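Exercise 3.2. Students should predict the tertiary structure of the chain below and write it as structure tokens, then compare their answer with the key that follows.

Predict this chain's 3D structure.
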Amino acid sequence: MCIAIPGKVTSLLDEYTALVDFGGVNKKVKLDLLGSCDDSLLGQYVLVHVGYAISLISEEEGKETMKLIEQLMEGEEDGYGV
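Answer key:
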């Protein structure tokens, strides 16, 4: 099973690379799989798998998924994780 994590594009570093915010952790992400990469991506949410943005998602879906991941992580800290 593969997992893709949602993040918000905060800046474009070059034609094929963006800085993406994963709930306070910023990482460089390759944009090659999205096709065209321009300023319209700024502020958009993307699903990222192994360093590549694999698709755009809605802001609502991105925020909801990030919230669920945070809840799972809180359970891990309490010893109640999956």
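Discussion points: The longest strand covers residues 5-14. The first helix runs from residue 59 to 77.
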